[in-house]
Amino acid sequence: MKPVDVINPEETGETGETGETVARLPEPRGPISAFLFERLARPPHELGELAVTSADPVLSDEDLQLALFACYELHYQGFGEVDDRWEWHPSLLRVRQVLERRFEWGLSGVVPPPAPVPARELPRTLGRLAAAAGDGPPLADFLHHEAGRAHFREFVVHRSVYHLKEADPHTFGIPRLRGHAKAALVEIQADEYGGGRAERMHAELFRATMRGLGLSDSYGAYLDRVPAITLAVNNVMSLFGLHRRFRGALLGHLAALEMTSSLPNAKYGRGLRRIGGDATAARFYDEHVQADAVHEQIAGYDMCGTFAAAHPSMTGDVLYGAACCLALDRLFAEHVMKSWENRATSLRGGGLEPG
């Protein structure tokens, strides 16, 4: 997929611009996404029924994950050829519901719903979940000590799907909360958005990382290249963020991100410097080492702890969101490492051109 009016650096060697760009619909990956994209390119109309019959495991179902991602993307930056009125069109929402039901079913098969705990125990239980993840998956160690430039570029391409809209999925939770939990979420998100300074927004810092590795920094530039598991990592955030019933899971997801971020990001930063990355390229990772160490406490106690005190029946939801975050990140890391161990690319369509 090529963004509108942005030159692909793999063709020209030029980097993308940091200004606003508009992504195009990606290439379909099967009958579901083909059905959906052909219709989204037209003015809003009734879509009709959608049957999901794939036997593929849900989290590795390329067609389903891409179709669901595209539905969710209409709530973010959208696509250049898709009418904005599709965002809340009842016909599209019915199609999305079919996809979401299958996605939820697939998640429940990988992450059984945890048992609720007493509200006062929730922060410590979240801490134990995070501690069980260790200091990051083997992927973090590999990027720290062994990865070459080509490996690091692939990793950054995967992560760009989220980091170029970093924090946006969790921000949907702000109007769904009250009191201390809401204030804590706003405090975390304000840091993610650079404290009001555009150049310090985490998405902008990541653009600098991409440019430093000779990659396009344009929103959506690599959507066609990432596999289903990368899309699933992003889709679970949107699923939780766009449904009020999942507000507890959304907070747990964010807490798990913050609690397991500092050590891996320190390794990513050191690994990037090892292969020649400069301070500008590594700043994104350096920022997360510092910020997330603080966010960890805010997320566990001030956000999730106070939410649990106000909603003691929803502690299981919070733990489920955290467990989904950790499980999908583990599956993503396993996919990438298995590909590299087999001397293959972890991306779709072959490896990246040198940059």
Main features:
355 residues, mainly alpha, 15 helices, Heme Oxygenase, Chain A
In short:
The chain is mainly alpha-helical and 355 residues long.
Termini separation comes to: 18 Å
Relevant CATH superfamily of the largest domain: Heme oxygenase-like
Strand percentage, roughly? under 5%
Low-confidence segments, given as residue ranges, are 1-18
Overall residue-averaged pLDDT value = 92
Major β-sheet, in short? none
Number of discrete helical segments: 15
Helix content: 55-70%
List SSEs in N-to-C order. HHHHHHHHHHHHHHH
Estimate nothing, just give the exact number of structural domains: 2
CATH class of the largest domain: Mainly Alpha
- The total strand number stands at 0
> Whole-number radius of gyration?
20 Å
| CATH-level-2 architecture of the largest domain | Up-down Bundle
CATH fold field value of the largest domain: Heme Oxygenase, Chain A
Structural class comes to mainly alpha
Q: What does the overall shape look like?
A: globular
Spell out the blueprint of helices and strands.
Elements: H1 9-12, H2 31-40, H3 62-73, H4 90-110, H5 122-132, H6 138-145, H7 149-163, H8 168-171, H9 179-192, H10 202-212, H11 228-241, H12 247-259, H13 262-274, H14 279-310, H15 315-341
Helix pairs in contact: 2-3, 3-4, 3-11, 5-12, 5-14, 5-15, 6-13, 7-10, 9-14, 10-14, 11-15, 12-14, 12-15, 13-14
How would you portray this structure in words?
By secondary structure, the chain is mainly α. The protein has 2 domains: 102 residues, no CATH class; 223 residues, Heme Oxygenase, Chain A (Up-down Bundle), CATH 1.20.910. Helix 13 runs antiparallel to helix 14. It is globular and about 45 Å long. The N terminus is likely disordered.
